[in-house]
Fold:
Amino acid sequence: MDLIAACRVLAEVDERGSVTRAAAALGVAQSVASRRLLALEERLGGPLLERGARRTGLTPFGRGVAPSARRLVRLADELEMDAERTLRQPVMIAVPESCSTRDLAVVDATGRADGIPIEFIRAPPPRRAELVSSAIVSIAVAAVPAEEGRWRVPLGAAGRREYAGTLHLSALRRSRVVRPGHDVDTGSRLHITPEDDLPHVRDVISRAGFAAGLVPGQLPIDSSLTTSLATVLSTGDLLLCSESEARDVGLSWRPFIGVKIARGYELVASSDHDIRRVADTVSHELGAALGASESSATTGRIFDA
Structure:
């Protein structure tokens, strides 16, 4: 039996005085309301309705249990409202700082069309891990080695000047001719942002740079993407980034030749349900916001708090 539905009938009969009026208030047939009351009587073990010719309404037993029935109905209504309110709450996702506002808006719009509103917090990799471990966000886009990620994002060099083709790191070697008052490093540095200050990216580019004859100062690690971009725009240096990232900030991008460098991303959360819910709905759009295409390498990891 449907206990809540039967309790609704009992509560309405107690308030309105008859099964007929109770059924009308609930929008069901009188026969349906009567069957529900009969089932409830069997469940509770006593008669709820006066069925004599001279009396209508509830029996003393019915009046005695009616307050509990009303409380149960009220709690059921509150449960449904809480569930609806929770489902309407946005899913909080921590994403890289380099994701463009428009791309994230596309992710959100796609999620909303499927009943999943999404909000984003931009943060560097360590902070994203903190946000999901402390339950400030439901999901984080974690930076992982490219071969382990759901998404793979190839990296190259971007600058303010228009270039075609590819870039070999040896092209950044310092000139042996130093003009007076000229910064010998200007235009020869490749800036690394916090998003790539991770062993699986930083160490690869550092080893490749050393092999190409660069000195450590030519691969500076900046404190923020804004700092890196400002330096690139003011000095003519280069930025280690993805092609979509370069396009979003108006820089000319070239892939590397002689070395392959890529970011890897996957979803981490405290709940596999959250990962499936987001991945099944906005995986393609989220991958595009990261500058990558989806692979089938993993389906996300569960964060063990």
